[in-house]
């Protein structure tokens, strides 16, 4: 039994050099994680808490920081600020038979009108039935040779603009866009 006790009481000498060493790979991983956390915190601060106010941006660009005022010295609303910006009006898609002798081909076109501004939009919307009618008649009078080329599409756009201008008046519709143009 004495031999067993000797084994239990035997103490191994303590080495000061036997401390666990940190590998350089672990230090790099910890440094990268810390850098990622700091970078994320900085990005969150600038995105959520330090977004520039419109007035600060105007001052930074040398513009007057006060809101625009009308003739009576009152501040304009945001709606009034955007009243002069162009407005788009999407028309329902047009599906017409082309002017072919056997009427085997058809055209599907989606048109968007760019209106001068918001007040003009109301005027144009009152005349949408007339506009749609003229566009429908124009499209159904075309043959595939008239519209298949790029020049034909541009000519069609110009003809549409002439007809719409006759209906609503000058400078109310500023442009026409084809958002879909299918010939089959």
Care to describe what's here?
- The chain is of the alpha+beta class and 184 residues long.
- It has helices spanning 2-9, 24-49, 54-60, 78-81, 118-126, 128-140, 144-147, 150-168, and strands at 87-90, 94-97, 106-115, 173-183.
- The longest helix is centred in the first third of the chain and has 26 residues, at 24-49.
- It is elongated.
- Counting structural domains, the number is 2
Portion of residues in helices?
A: 40-55%
Over the alpha carbons, how many angstroms does the gyration radius reach?
37 Å
What count of helical segments does DSSP give? 8
Any idea what the shape is? Answer: elongated
Q: Biggest sheet, open or closed, and with what strands and sense?
A: 4 strands, antiparallel
CATH T-level fold name of the largest domain: Tetrahydropterin Synthase, Chain A
Keywords:
alpha+beta, Tetrahydropterin Synthase, Chain A, 184 residues, 8 helices, elongated, four-stranded antiparallel sheet
Give the structure's gist in a few sentences.
By secondary structure, the chain is α+β, with helices and mostly antiparallel strands. The protein is 49% helix and 16% strand. β2 and β3 form a beta hairpin.
Write the layout of secondary structure elements.
Blueprint lengths: L1 H8 L14 H26 L4 H7 L17 H4 L5 E4 L3 E4 L8 E10 L2 H9 L1 H13 L3 H4 L2 H19 L4 E11 L1
Antiparallel strand pairs: 1-3, 2-3, 3-4
Helix pairs in contact: 6-8
